[in-house]
Amino acid sequence: MPNPTEAADLSGRRAQAARNDSAIVDAARAVFLDDPKAPVSAVAARAGVGISALYRRYGGKEDLLRQVCHDGLRRYIAEAEQALAEDDDWQAFTSFLFRIVDADVHSLTVHLAGSFEPTAEMGADAARSGKLAERLTRRGHQSGRLRSDFTPADIVLVLEGCAALRFPDPERTRRLRRRYLALQLAGLDTAAGAAQDAGLPGPPASEEELGWRWRR
Amino acid sequence: MPNPTEAADLSGRRAQAARNDSAIVDAARAVFLDDPKAPVSAVAARAGVGISALYRRYGGKEDLLRQVCHDGLRRYIAEAEQALAEDDDWQAFTSFLFRIVDADVHSLTVHLAGSFEPTAEMGADAARSGKLAERLTRRGHQSGRLRSDFTPADIVLVLEGCAALRFPDPERTRRLRRRYLALQLAGLDTAAGAAQDAGLPGPPASEEELGWRWRR
DNA sequence: GGAAGAACGGAACATTCTGTTCCGTTGTTG
DNA sequence: CAACAACGGAACAGAATGTTCCGTTCTTCC
């Protein structure tokens, strides 16, 4: 029995099916990232497959949305865990932010929220990602460099601001997002000279406020 | 002949018409800010007006979009000019950013671009707003506080990042946007301690890159 | 070799959505 | 009271879109 995750040694229809599996999720991610309301046909077109190849795999549009979003959430968690493995505290914190920005994984969750009924497993993963962001923030503070009034909720919104920047060329998008992430990091890093005497204005967002998107 | 801009002393139908004028643009701004693809009926409903009241004023949806966008552009210019009137250079620069963020006027232009054929007058105003942003940036540099690798193109993207933050309560939205604008300002302000030795990564966006949204 | 089946492409279908028009009504003016 | 301005919202036509279905192609197994 051939391993379905190894597409290389498959031939003909099987190989095509394996390729399509990833082509479809990749296309769906790209298309819905660009326009959360995009029609299913746009996803199929971008993937270079017929519509039936899509409906064979997903029960419907909502199911597709859910899978793509959950996939993004899992990537987020994976990146966070890799960042957490870093030795230096400040490195762990900053590399986390750069990783998420590079992976372009944050806006997925944000823009697609509310367009499908989340599963229980997604809820668990979302909670998990929250815990990870908390731990990363704590390490930032432990390093002594992260300004004291920065909270885990700020991570969400800093990332959201970066994710809003979008250009036709994905690589250019990545570079420019890094530029503004670096700018915000400069404002966060007391070792870079950020004066804390003038604290950030207004309280950070509450959990309540960050969760409203998920309501349908 | 009654002054059409003064609604107070008009009666009956005339007064209603005057109220509707502003109710419709306000509603259109709010609705399209929330969803650039929103149907015309949503604008009418939000304005508490029938559809005919809307079509009496605008030739069609595209015309409405254009007017709302142009109105936003004009507000942008007005805010920039007021900021320019500030005495202190650094004050002029920062107050400009806060003004635009508070007026929630930047994302209008950004999100609606490309959904209508811009007029020549809009092009002129867009050029004008560009010049103003340049002058404001120059004053920032003249104050000696703005880090040297910050360009007018950065203004656009910093504002865009802030505009991406949106919550059900407009006042809360404003507060939180200010929080992240302040964070970026802390990264920009050499007087606040921002170390310039580590420059911002990647070149800023070019005019070309910033203009692609307007293509249809 | 051929029958059965897996996977596919894309036309076809049924809705829903949405921009625009149109008509009857209401209030205003001369 | 006649002409008119403005309005509300039903009606209409056409586009958009989620989903199904059928004929085709390639693979596998007897």
UniProtKB/TrEMBL annotation, chains A, B:
Keywords for the protein's UniProt record, in alphabetical order: DNA-binding, Transcription, Transcription regulation
DNA-binding region: 39-58
InterPro entries: Homeodomain-like_sf (IPR009057), HTH-type_TetR-like_transc_reg (IPR050109), HTH_TetR (IPR001647), Tet_transcr_reg_TetR-rel_C_sf (IPR036271)
Keyword DNA-binding listed: yes
Region of interest called Disordered, as start-end residue ranges on this chain: 193-216
Pfam families: TetR_N (PF00440)
Annotated ranges, domain HTH tetR-type: 18-76
Gene3D superfamilies: Tetracycline Repressor, domain 2 (1.10.357.10)
Protein name: Helix-turn-helix domain-containing protein
Native organism: Streptomonospora wellingtoniae
